[in-house]
Amino acid sequence: MTNKVLVAYASKYGSTQEVAEAIAKIMREKGLDVNLQQASQVRSLEEYSAVVLGAPLYLYRWHKYAIRFLNRHEKVLKSMPAAVFAVGPSFNGDEKEWLETRDQFRKELAKFPWFKPIESEVMGGKFDPANLSFPIKYFLKDLPAADLRDWDAIAAWAAEVADKLQDR
Q1: Of 117, 126, 116, nearest to 154 (Cα)?
Q2: Which of 25, 78, 80, 81 has the fewest beta carbons closer than 10 A?
């Protein structure tokens, strides 16, 4: 195993990919050797010493490729430092939406009792009804586009995770 970090992500419309790219950039600036890859494309964690996994929550369900990633790599992840994030609130970002999203993310992670990330975070998301497909587009077409991603908070979280990984 090398001293390389994998930032793996699942993204349907590109918003979570942009967050993962920002996280990887900050971690590189902090001196870490980072690979950025779609979670669905990762076949082995052999070359990594740590993982950051991120995916969106759609209708309060974590993206299926993040779940598959955890299932596929359970054996290695049990003994590897990992951090995890979900991209969530993307409509109005009120307190209720944040609380519900954080609660659902905890429930999603609880499905993996063996998984003990060193950090976990829910980040704001991006919503553009023009990107949606039928039938969900029909129900959400009247909602305005919104981008609740807080790039300063994302950078701070990435720096905190990088510091924790370097301290290990």
Answers
A1: 126
A2: 78
- The per-residue pLDDT for range 96-138, each reduced to its tens digit, is 888 999 999 999 999 999 999 999 999 998 877 676 666 665 6
Domain of 133, in residue numbers: 4-167
CA distances to 75, 88, 134 from 8, rounded to whole Å, are 17, 17, 28
Residue 30 has, within 13 A of its CA and on its CB side, a CA count of: 23
Q: How many domains does the chain have?
A: 1
Between 151-167 and 15-29, two packed helices, what is the crossing angle to 10 degrees? Answer: 50
* pLDDT tens column, 60-91: 789 999 999 999 999 999 999 999 999 987 66
59: left (phi over 0), alpha (psi -120 to 50) or beta: left
Assess whether the previous peptide bond of 135 is cis (omega < 30° from 0): yes
- The answer to whether 38 and 63 have CB atoms below 8 angstroms apart is no
Q: What is the pTM of this model?
A: 0.91
The CA distance from 60 to 127, in Å, is: 14
